[in-house]
Specification:
By secondary structure, the chain is α+β, with helices and mostly antiparallel strands. Helices cover 55% and strands 14% of the residues. The strands form 2 sheets. Strands 1, 2, 3, 4, 5, 6, 7, 8 and 9 form a 9-stranded mixed β-sheet that branches.
Length: 691
């Protein structure tokens, strides 16, 4: 028996297509066709440079060369050809090779080669950037001085199933990187003969991008910090096709958003902005660019009877590589458990360590009753909408609480819904506020560390108790418990602006906008802050931005009109007001009519201002109208005594709009120095710290 082992030195090139699974998921037929077309062009290059193809399974390629120089030249030529072929291809359908090259001994027989030399090449390919090449130190040493190349040091890397760390370098070209960094930061060869011009594949800005990407990858590999600092959870696709269970697929996404936002240092895009991409066929890179995030969570849910199949993945938007993926087949009753598992796994993928508070937040399952959870999700689905939809929200939350009396999140949701009802419906305000207090108290009894409950209590204390210190304490506690919550930053920013603490309020509103870049709410709050400051140009720009985000949002036009009026740009103000008037039509919107009337009065259009007063008096015969709405117009008309009469009435009725009384003087300077108005503000007990 011949036990002789045949060995030889070989340069091994391993390559595969980045994001191939995603491409296949999008369109299998087109992906296979495109791959075959690319292979027909690039695979012959192996023979051209004296190499031998060992394997072409799936989207991968493994080739052997007798020379490291030939291997590198072939790899760079492949990347050049692919770059050229991709120029006319839509970004989300582009195929980019990742290539790893190693020089080492291999074991061979008549048909195959084996050994660590091949394994190392494959591991190098796995850490290469799309369109990039990673090489081992042995390859670097062999080609130095022979090719006009440069190397970015990625440090020693612990590669999977390789016993010792391998020194890794990312390959680029000396002519393009010499001016981008100090010479000492790379190993180059000034005397190296140039490659053919056609083989210079990384030029100018493209090289800089590669260097930055490699630097990030190197930092991540060395464990200094996570490369992923921001993430968006897109709405999971409803694979069943039944719109009746949209709330389930949407609910998974919202639950993951809420859980991940509890992680400090991780920016998680809010539901509003993430759900703007529901049903849109866009590449992860495009969505990531619009949202300004590093990674996306994508998923699909299908229900068959009592069984659920959930697929989820975490995708790096820079190169569409999958950072994590999993498929769950469970009973529908296990949905909560699956959500917790997904959130914990994603957190572990993004971060090395979690605090005890963060671990508790991720592990919290809220309820063990799956039916109550589904009712809660339906309640959340109707919480933001018109009055009729919010009535449905209350009903679903009540059903969830009846089904699971110890479900803290459902109690917090109910408190939030009642608070909104109380703000909008003064006729039943006392009853609604009472129910909101009961619900939030119960939520905190069940879970003292529930951020949503503290936020709900903060709103009750702000709008209805006028307990400014108590409200701030609740908002701050909610922020400690969930530092990435858009709702907390949004509500806290509004509160701080109302207290006259404009710099602090602006900071919170800006953070809300960073977390929710495609929503009008935070942008509106920033514009209001500028309006209160008297910085009208910035305020007008903000309200115009809200109109760009949502052309159907009436308040954007109303507040733009008011801001332009304060600038005495009355022609522009009237144009914005006309748009708002058409959108309001015959709808009962007292406060919006009040702001329009104040704008007309500021521009000297007395007839239109009084027309708005008449409309408010007509509405008063049908429904409750907050006295503040009358005060706004009378004040702008210069009818100070009448304005004060309405403000005093609003104070006696403790209307929620009076929570903004401290900053009224900033947009109604005609009230400055008025003793009667000062007496109202003093009686409300505002902290005199506004700046």
């Amino acid at each position: 028996m011949d036990d002789k082992v045949n060995r030889r030195l070989a340069a091994i090139v391993a390559a595969d297509i980045a994001g191939y699974s995603r491409l296949m998921g999008d369109d299998e037929v087109a992906t296979v066709r495109d791959l075959q077309g690319h292979q027909a062009v690039v695979l012959p290059l192996v023979a051209e440079f004296g190499g031998r193809i060992i394997d072409t399974a799936g989207d991968g390629m493994l080739a052997e060369f007798r020379s490291a120089v030939a291997a590198v030249e072939c790899a760079t030529q492949i990347q050049e050809r692919m770059a050229g072929r991709n120029e006319s291809v839509p970004e989300h359908r582009r195929m980019q090779f990742r290539i790893g090259i190693n020089l080492g001994e291999v074991i061979h027989d008549e048909t195959r080669i084996y050994g660590d030399g091949i394994n190392i090449a494959a591991r190098l390919e796995a850490i290469a950037q799309p369109g990039g090449i990673c090489v081992s130190a042995k390859v670097r040493d062999e080609i130095e001085g022979k090719l006009a190349v440069s190397f970015v040091d990625m440090g020693p890397q612990a590669l999977k199933n390789i016993a010792k760390p391998v020194q890794v370098y990312a390959l680029t070209f000396a002519a393009e990187v010499s001016e981008l960094r100090p010479q000492a930061s790379a190993t180059t060869s000034a005397a190296a003969p140039p490659l053919r011009a056609s083989r210079r594949v990384l030029l100018g800005a493209a090289t800089l991008v590669l260097l930055l990407a490699v630097a990030v990858a190197a930092i991540q590999m060395r464990g200094r910090s996570a490369a992923i600092g921001s993430v968006a959870v897109l709405p999971f696709e409803n694979g069943t096709g039944d719109p009746a269970i949209d709330y389930l697929s949407d609910g998974i996404s919202e639950s993951l958003i809420n859980k991940l936002s509890s992680l400090s240092g991780l920016r998680v895009i809010s539901r509003t902005s993430a759900f703007a991409f529901k049903g849109q066929k866009m590449s992860p890179t495009e969505i990531g660019r619009k949202l300004g995030v590093d990674a996306l969570v994508l998923g699909n849910l299908a229900q068959r009877g009592s069984s659920l199949t959930i697929s989820a993945e975490l995708v790096n938007v820079r190169d569409t590589s999958q950072l994590w993926g999993e498929k769950y087949s469970r009973s529908a009753d296990d949905l909560l458990q699956v959500e917790g598992e997904m959130a914990a796994t994603i957190a572990q993928t993004l971060r090395r360590q979690l605090s005890g508070l963060e671990k508790a937040a991720l592990a919290r399952t809220a309820t063990t009753d799956p039916q109550a959870y589904r009712l809660y999700l339906k309640g959340r689905d109707f919480l933001v909408g018109n009055q009729q939809e919010m009535d449905k929200s209350v009903d679903y939350f009540q059903q969830a609480v009846a089904k699971a009396p110890d479900y803290a999140m459902a109690h917090a949701g109910l408190a939030n819904a009642y608070t909104r009802q109380a703000y909008l419906r003064a006729a039943s305000r006392t009853e609604s506020v009472g129910m909101a207090r009961t619900a939030v108290t119960r939520a905190l009894e069940l879970d003292p560390d529930l951020a949503e409950a503290h936020t709900a209590l903060g709103l009750v204390r702000f709008y209805f108790d006028w307990d400014w210190a108590g409200a701030e304490a609740e908002f701050r506690r909610a922020l400690e418990l969930n530092p990435g919550s858009i709702a907390v930053h949004d509500e806290y920013g509004t509160f701080l602006t109302a207290m006259g603490r404009l710099d602090e309020g602006l900071a919170q509103s800006r953070e809300a906008a960073r977390l929710d870049p495609l929503s009008v709410g935070p942008v509106h709050d920033i514009a209001i802050n500028y309006l209160v400051r008297g910085e009208y140009e910035q305020a007008a720009a903000g309200f115009r931005q809200t109109n760009d985000i949502d052309p159907n949002w009436t308040w954007g036009y109303i507040k733009l009109a008011r801001t332009l009026a304060l600038q005495k740009k009355c022609a522009e103000a009237h144009a914005a007001a006309e748009i708002a008037e058409r959108k309001i039509a015959d709808g009962a919107a007292p406060l919006s009519r009040s702001w329009l009337g104040a704008g007309y009065a500021t521009c000297g259009d007395i007839a239109r201002a009084r027309q708005k007063l008449d409309e408010l008096h007509a509405l008063e015969k049908k429904q409750y109208v907050d006295p503040v709405t009358f005060a706004e117009i009378h004040s702008s008309l210069g009818e100070i005594d009448e304005a004060l009469r309405w403000y005093e009435k609003a104070f006696e009725e403790r209307t929620p709009n009076m929570a903004y009384a401290f900053i009224v003087l900033r947009i109604h300077p005609e009230l400055a120095g008025n003793a009667r108005f000062k007496a109202i503000v003093d009686r409300m007990g505002f902290p005199q710290t506004g700046k």
